[in-house]
């Protein structure tokens, strides 16, 4: 991949360009989550019309169903889903940990039971790359060892050691495969762990970032129930140990406020189920804060969700109509609400980028918070 820093602004905020085989990605970037090879309620055209340059897929889910060999037959995720821009695929480490019954890591990989049919499987640093070669994702994530927080120092230390061991195995396997012509257009990111402990984060970041063949680095293991300020402090601390000349990705984060705070702390890439999941639950994001579309107060409200929004939903429909569709349980509601929330997140990232390019981050951030607190 090609990576270029276009501008920097207040503190560690930066605007970059990442070029993969399938798209040019302007950062800061939010990657909508398409776990099963689709962003829920949407299709490839919807995502293209909203300007999404990269979306996420999940190795864990696609490996279990429909299977990566089948997807490979259809030309990988791009051919199968018809989304022509970039895909990033998570490795399955996090999903095996959070979704399956009694997942059990050992020195060489993770044993887990499928959440679909209870069948037993084993992921290794190499096997999750094989699956991701079949999926043809532009950015592949390594297998990492997750721990529930809070946890003992010994267990967190173990997780760092394992993640580094697996990262070394993964990068040498990837180089071997590329030498054989496999995955030549695919990039690979390592994942820094270490809970909210500074020394552990430093250790993990230093060990992984020394592996200079990695195309980028992620911060994992956050947004798992710790206080927000702990997440911000951990990111602030960790980005100082990450190289300037490679993309930085904060996994599974977050709210609009979390994105703004972490861009300032040096993060380029984000993903989260929040805009899509919240859309389906009736929570819509706007420039003045959240709207709970279920509320009776919107029954006869003829205004769009967000006066400032240029999405398909806001250009065409009222809150009253969405309130009705939600209450009636109509499928169309999910599509219209998801279109809005994703577009809101993408627009927020474009605005953040413009602020960095114009070097007026501080003003931008102030206005972002002021609009929210002035909500009636
Ligand atoms: N998604 C959110 N957090 C994580 C993490 O720490 N590791 C992986 N693999 N995926 C994640
Ligand atoms: Zn909208």
UniProtKB/TrEMBL annotation:
Belongs to the queuine tRNA-ribosyltransferase family. GO terms for biological process: tRNA queuosine(34) biosynthetic process. This is Queuine tRNA-ribosyltransferase. Residues 252-258, 276-280 are annotated as: RNA binding. GO terms for molecular function: metal ion binding; tRNA-guanosine(34) queuine transglycosylase activity. Its EC number is 2.4.2.29. InterPro entries: TGT (IPR004803), TGT-like_sf (IPR036511), tRNA_ribo_trans-like (IPR002616). Keywords: Glycosyltransferase, Metal-binding, Queuosine biosynthesis, Transferase, tRNA processing, Zinc. It catalyses: 7-aminomethyl-7-carbaguanine + guanosine(34) in tRNA = 7-aminomethyl-7-carbaguanosine(34) in tRNA + guanine. It comes from Halarcobacter mediterraneus. It holds the Pfam family TGT. The active site is at 90 (proton acceptor), 271 (nucleophile). Residues 12-373 form the tRNA-guanine(15) transglycosylase-like domain. It is an enzyme of class 2 (transferase). Homodimer. Within each dimer, one monomer is responsible for RNA recognition and catalysis, while the other monomer binds to the replacement base PreQ1.
């Amino acid at each position: 991949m090609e990576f270029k820093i276009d501008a920097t602004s207040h503190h560690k905020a930066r605007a970059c360009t990442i070029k993969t085989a399938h798209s040019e990605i302007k950062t800061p970037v939010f990657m909508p989550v398409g776990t099963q090879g689709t962003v829920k309620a949407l299709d490839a055209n919807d995502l293209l019309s909203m300007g999404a340059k990269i979306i996420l897929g999940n190795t864990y889910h696609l490996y279990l169903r429909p299977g990566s060999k089948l997807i490979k037959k259809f030309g990988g995720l791009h051919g199968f889903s018809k989304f022509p821009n970039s895909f990033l695929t998570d490795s399955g480490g996090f999903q095996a940990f959070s979704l399956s019954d009694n997942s059990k890591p050992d020195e060489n990989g993770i044993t887990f039971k499928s959440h679909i049919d209870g069948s037993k499987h084993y992921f290794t640093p190499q096997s999750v790359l094989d699956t991701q070669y079949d999926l043809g994702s532009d950015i592949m994530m390594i297998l990492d060892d997750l721990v529930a927080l809070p946890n003992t120092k010994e267990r967190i230390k173990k997780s760092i050691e394992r993640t580094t061991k697996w990262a070394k195995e993964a990068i040498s396997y990837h180089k071997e495969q590329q030498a054989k012509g496999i995955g030549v257009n695919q990039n690979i990111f390592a994942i820094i762990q270490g809970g909210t402990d500074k020394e552990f984060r430093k250790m993990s970041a230093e060990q992984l970032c020394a592996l200079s063949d990695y195309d980028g680095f992620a911060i994992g293991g956050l947004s798992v129930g710790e206080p927000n300020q702990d997440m911000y402090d951990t990111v602030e601390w960790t980005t100082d140990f990450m190289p300037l000349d490679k993309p930085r990705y904060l996994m599974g984060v977050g709210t609009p406020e979390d994105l703004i705070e972490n861009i300032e702390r040096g993060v380029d890439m984000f993903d989260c189920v929040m805009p899509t999941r919240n859309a389906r639950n009736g929570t819509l994001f706007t420039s003045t804060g959240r709207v709970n579309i279920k509320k009776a107060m919107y029954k006869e409200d003829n205004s769009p969700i967000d006066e400032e929004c240029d999405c398909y939903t806001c250009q065409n429909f009222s809150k009253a109509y969405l309130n009705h569709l939600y209450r009636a349980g109509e499928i169309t509601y999910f599509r219209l609400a998801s279109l809005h929330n994703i577009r809101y997140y993408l627009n927020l990232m474009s605005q953040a980028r413009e602020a960095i390019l114009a070097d007026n981050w501080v003003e931008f951030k102030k206005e972002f918070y002021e609009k929210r607190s002035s909500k009636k």
